[in-house]
């Protein structure tokens, strides 16, 4: 094999990620020339509706998977948080890159921190997970939907459409955009639990191609693969989509694995917050165990009601 084609979204962040993987592959396998197949996904095209109303983040991955299944790409590079737990037959998620900073970050041109926001301030986020956790600690805030690529979101903030917005820290760092924002505050994981897979890249391949599997395997980080597997097991068990008001995060410290989850209504009420710990050697089922525990506490009913509540004010004019 002397050529490998990577399918990628055409957004700036997705291209950064794809070129990063391209460079790593070509350095490790100098005999292989890597090309990019850039695709504008449905999730990138429909910018006038919240993601939860157009089927969630799976719209960011489906077109890339279709290209692989059609033989037009050998590999796809995804932000792992966007990848549904269901992988189509013929494809496989084989490698997870080393997880980086999972924090969400508060951004503003007016206020220095989340605590400094005045009562009734307008905060922008697309994520029901962020909306839930933000309104849990600051029920006085007005949370307004925020779509568009990273640059569009930052432009809307600068124009004053929002008093503040919340985005994933790692994407802004990768694109070197933090320096342009007057006030930034990384939010501790204790008040803003990340989504499944945040800050890792997922490498998906055509299952039948053994050479591509060999190439992808060197990109894999063992601990990141394990921890994100637990998170994905949890999401799969409770049946939540990528856009549901669900936070789940697994960490490892000195051989002890902890997984923590939060589920609730988008308005910050009816919150379930649970965690489990285990040794690394015995943690393989920890995600399923936490899901089972939280289901026993009423998680499925909360998720069903949360879906009805999500964006209910916007639905009549948006659909």
Descriptive overview:
- The protein has 319 residues and is an alpha/beta fold.
- It has three domains: 3-98 and 200-220, Periplasmic binding protein-like II (D-Maltodextrin-Binding Protein, domain 2, 3-Layer(aba) Sandwich), CATH 3.40.190.10; 104-187, D-Maltodextrin-Binding Protein, domain 2 (3-Layer(aba) Sandwich); 222-319, Porphobilinogen deaminase, C-terminal domain (Double Stranded RNA Binding Domain).
- It contains eleven helices and 13 strands.
- It has helices at 12-28, 42-45, 62-69, 128-137, 150-158, 169-174, 210-217, 222-238, 286-296, 299-309, 315-318, and strands at 3-9, 33-39, 75-79, 91-96, 104-108, 122-124, 142-144, 164-168, 183-187, 201-206, 246-253, 256-263, 272-279.
- Strands 2-1-3-10-4 form a five-stranded mixed β-sheet, sandwiched between helices. A five-stranded mixed β-sheet has the order 7-6-8-5-9, sandwiched between helices. A three-stranded antiparallel β-sheet has the order 11-12-13, with helices on both faces.
- The longest helix is centred in the first third of the chain and has 17 residues, at 12-28.
- It is globular and about 60 Å long.
Task: Kindly list the characteristics that best describe this protein.
D-Maltodextrin-Binding Protein, domain 2, Double Stranded RNA Binding Domain, 3 domains, five-stranded mixed beta sheet, 33% helix, globular
């Amino acid at each position: 094999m002397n050529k490998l084609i990577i399918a990628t979204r055409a957004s700036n962040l997705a291209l950064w990620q794809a070129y990063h993987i391209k460079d790593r592959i070509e350095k490790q396998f100098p005999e292989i020339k890597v090309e990019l197949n850039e695709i504008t996904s449905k999730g990138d095209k429909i910018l006038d509706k919240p993601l939860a109303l157009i089927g969630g983040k799976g719209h960011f991955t489906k077109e890339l998977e279709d290209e692989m299944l059609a033989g037009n790409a050998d590999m796809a590079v995804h932000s792992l948080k966007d990848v549904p737990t269901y992988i189509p037959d013929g494809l496989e998620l084989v490698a997870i890159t080393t997880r980086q900073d999972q924090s969400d970050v508060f951004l503003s041109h007016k206020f220095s921190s989340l605590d400094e926001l005045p009562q009734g301030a307008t905060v922008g986020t697309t994520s029901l997970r962020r909306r839930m956790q933000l309104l849990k600690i600051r029920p006085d805030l007005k949370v307004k939907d925020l779509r568009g690529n990273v640059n569009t979101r930052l432009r809307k903030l600068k124009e004053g459409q929002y008093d503040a917005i919340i985005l994933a820290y790692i994407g802004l760092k990768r694109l070197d955009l933090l320096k342009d924002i007057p006030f930034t505050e990384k939010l501790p994981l204790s008040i803003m639990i990340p989504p499944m897979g945040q800050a890792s890249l997922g490498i998906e391949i055509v299952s039948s191609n053994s050479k591509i599997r060999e190439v992808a395997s060197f990109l894999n980080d063992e601990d990141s693969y394990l921890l994100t597997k637990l998170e994905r097991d949890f999401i799969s068990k409770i049946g939540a989509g990528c856009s549901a008001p669900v936070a789940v995060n697994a960490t490892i410290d000195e051989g002890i694995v902890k997984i923590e989850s939060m589920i609730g209504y988008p308005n910050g009420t009816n919150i379930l917050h649970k965690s489990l710990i285990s040794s690394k050697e015995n943690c393989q089922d920890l995600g399923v165990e936490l899901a089972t525990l939280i289901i026993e506490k009423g998680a499925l009913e909360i998720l069903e009601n949360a879906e009805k509540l999500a964006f209910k004010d916007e639905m009549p004019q948006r659909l």
